[in-house]
Amino acid sequence: MSITPVADTFTPHPLFTKHCEFIAGAGSVESLPPVTAPEIAFIGRSNVGKSSLVNALVGQKALARTSPNPGLTKQLNFFALGYHLVLVDMPGYGYAKVSKARKSEWDEMIRSYLLGRTSLKRACLLIDARRGIMEKDDEFMTLLDNSSVNYQIILTKIDALTAKELSVLLESTTKSIGAHVAAHPEVIATSSLRKEGIYELQEQLIPFAII
Ligand SMILES: Nc1nc2c(ncn2[C@@H]2O[C@H](COP(=O)(O)OP(=O)(O)O)[C@@H](O)[C@H]2O)c(=O)[nH]1
Ligand SMILES: [Mg+2]
Q: Are the beta carbons of 45 and 136 closer than 8 angstroms?
């Protein structure tokens, strides 16, 4: 696969050019930080590209730690764009190589954050474009539906697809979210690598920010 370099022409939404900083990491429900701004959560399978997307959104290469080894993010990491918006990089689900006990601890933390945090305005549920919606994703979507958590499907790594493959995937994904009541009807296709879809996602998130 040939890798196209990041476009020099990408112009972010002004809100996302503001200084973004790590404010807290929470390894348990008890250690969640106090609310300082509306929150947007990034969830999805391990290795789907959550940390890379957070970095691409705020234009910082190494704010959220990214890794080719799945399962590295073991806590909820909170990144603040001043008092405007907080981006929450969540631990991935569906990672097999940890103990059952540890896994259920994470699941519990993820669930209680998503279901109980009143400052959470939207969950961005990331789907690897090379795989599409998998069983574990669908289960998670149903959990969000049943708990009335407002979420939006974000395809990641679209640089790995041809234009034709992407249009087929967009169509099938849009169709399958029809059955999910809490899913935003619009699917956003992104590549953090090539900065594709990043401005579109920024635009989706702006209405939740305190300006
Ligand atoms: N080709 C491609 N690879 C990506 C993209 N975003 C992330 N990756 C790679 O996917 C792997 C996992 O990314 P990471 O952001 O750490 O995923 P996370 O576990 O969901 O936080 C890393 O090797 C990234 O370089 C993308 O847009 N395109
Ligand atoms: Mg990560």
A: yes
